[in-house]
Amino acid sequence: MSRLAIGRHPVVMGRVYDYRKYADSLRERFKEAGVARSPVQKKLQLARAYFSGNPVWCSWQVNYRCNFRCRFCNYWIDPMGDRPELSPGEFHLGARKLAELGTLLISLSGGEPLIRLDIVDIVRAVGRWHFPFITTNGWFVTRELAEELFAAGLWGVSISIDYADAERHDRRRGMPGAFQRALAAIEHFTRARRYKWQRVNWMAVLMEDNFDQIEPMLKMAAEREAYFMVQPYGVRKTGNRRYVAGDRGVSQHLLTLRQRYRNFLSNPYFLSRVDQALNGGVPGCRAGRGFFNIDSTGDIAACVEQRDRPVANLLEHSPPGILRALRRDATPRRCTACWYNCRGEIESLYDPLGVMQSLPTLLLDRGRAPTLATRE
Ligand SMILES: C[S@@+](CC[C@H](N)C(=O)[O-])C[C@H]1O[C@@H](n2cnc3c(N)ncnc32)[C@H](O)[C@@H]1O
Ligand code: SF4
Ligand code: SF4
Description:
- A hairpin with a 4-residue loop joins β10 and β11.
- The chain starts with a strand and ends in a 13-residue tail after the last helix.
- It has a 9-stranded mixed sheet, with helices on both faces. It has a 3-stranded antiparallel sheet with strand order 1-2-3, with no helix packed on it.
- The chain has 14 helices and 12 strands.
- It is an alpha/beta fold.
- It has a single domain, classed as Aldolase class I (TIM Barrel, Alpha-Beta Barrel).
- The structure holds S-adenosylmethionine and iron/sulfur cluster (2 copies).
- Residues 236, 285, 287, 302-303, 305-306, 333, 335-338, 343 line the site of one iron/sulfur cluster.
């Protein structure tokens, strides 16, 4: 590029520019794109959100379409699957808007999020200001896609596997080959990590028949440098109580395993309340205050199970307006219907001991799980 300054007017490619106009247009373009935050800035902005009493976690459903037929989830027949989904440009605009409230831990989920061919662009857009995570059934993961997602700034990924036994997992997920593809997905992501903070996580739903599978799954995850998390089956998705886990001694068993296995990431605060969750529910839900949900259409609700009662829309309302609507909706909240990870892990941040136990997970760049699983 030839560049010749004439007084205050630079000549760029033969065109004369006015400095002020040039600077204004640059500023506008910067504002339009939104200046990205560094990992340290994101952590500070996350702390700002927390100390201002703003939500710190957002579940953002990128779709409701799914290639699986899981028995315990009905998203694959959800009519929302036919509604138009937000574009990457709208994710960009929405994420920039949310950045005014601080930085959020954003779980990109669905449906099956990797069905979307533009998922890498979505991750890149969200990752400019926030910490993007993905939860996936693992089916569509290839080495290339794992590399692209981590290169785009994905902070962490959870691959859902509910049994250590291929046949049982495939049957419950209604998809032959699901187990092998999910294991391969964990391996692809583990190899594709490029920054030390990028985390690969094995995510299991605790159901009526997989209590004995937790320990073998922990071991298999550790062998693949993956962390492990678990959440109890919630009845809201299907209305069916058939898959609810047994209700006694679950917490103690999980806490004992957590003591033994260094890759067991679930917070002790969360695990210690699983029994209560299975015996009538944990009160004091912070949906709408500590965390909230955005649908594939941009509608905002307290949590994914309240999505038929949206309180605002990401593209239509201002950040303070969204916050006000969520707060209005949150008091009082008596629902005790779930003890999902997003709920329990975030609520642990509002408990003095829970927050101390969460800090290493949140602040340390410990993406690679310890391969030597046990503490013994
Ligand atoms: C709804 S899925 C969407 C992402 C992706 N399709 C998957 O299965 O990982 C998000 C997480 O919720 C879990 N899940 C699905 N139905 C559930 C239920 N009824 N109770 C608790 N967790 C459930 C899934 O196993 C997964 O870890
Ligand atoms: S749990 Fe995930 S993979 Fe299974 S039907 Fe629901 S969205 Fe699909
Ligand atoms: S307990 Fe809270 S997060 Fe769970 S379904 Fe009810 S309102 Fe939603």
